[in-house]
Amino acid sequence: MSLAYPNFPLRRGDIYKIKVKYTEDPTEGKERPVLVLRDERFDKITSSHTTVASGTSNSKYANYPLALKVDPKKIEGLKLDKPTFFLANLLYTIDKQKYFAGQPFIGRLSESLMKQFDVLLVLALQIDLYK
Fold first, then answer.
1. Sorting pLDDT into bands at 50, 70 and 90, what band is 54?
2. Potential cystine with 124: which of 73, 81, 88, 103 (Cβ 3.0-4.6 Å)?
3. Residues paired with 67 in a beta bridge
4. Distances (CA, A) of 112 to 15, 42, 106
């Protein structure tokens, strides 16, 4: 069985490789990994879109405070070629059919890594949860 969307449901923590660019045209742009952020429970409200964080293998983000480093050597079954930095300040809400159709499933982050990314999201969005 091929693990490619739409045959495989998108879930929070999933990683796919899609073409990302600052336009509505999914045929343009560079193919890069994205981390699915939106919980699948929201599909009942708005099933056509999801929110993702862009990933890069550029090592200049190694010390970037809003980047989560994901090392494929440390996560069993993760199909990334090299360490990838998912950026909490580079988010997209995108059409699932347009961007994910036929794209391969790369892997899924653990709950603990997603909690680490949640902290980065709070920092990136400057949300003060305790006021």
1. very high
2. 88
3. 87
4. 15, 21, 18
Question: Quick one: DSSP state of residue 28?
Answer: S
Q: What is the per-residue pLDDT for 128?
A: 78
Q: Which two tokens stand for residue 130?
A: 């305790």
pLDDT in the model for residue 23: 56
Q: Is residue 8 within 8 Å of 101, Cβ to Cβ?
A: no
- Decide if 52 contacts 92 (C-beta within 8 A): yes
Decide if pLDDT at 1 tops 50: no
Residues sharing a CB contact under 8 Å with residue 68, sequence separation 6 or more, in sequence order? 85, 86, 88, 113, 116, 117, 120
Residue 14 φ then ψ, to 5°:
-70, 150
Mean pLDDT of 44-54: 82
- 88: helix, coil or strand? strand
8 A C-beta contact, residue 90 and residue 54: yes
DSSP letter, residue 93: E
Question: What is the spatial distance between Cα 64 and Cα 109, in angstroms, rounded to a whole number?
Answer: 20
Residue spans of alpha helices (H) in the chain: 96-100, 111-124
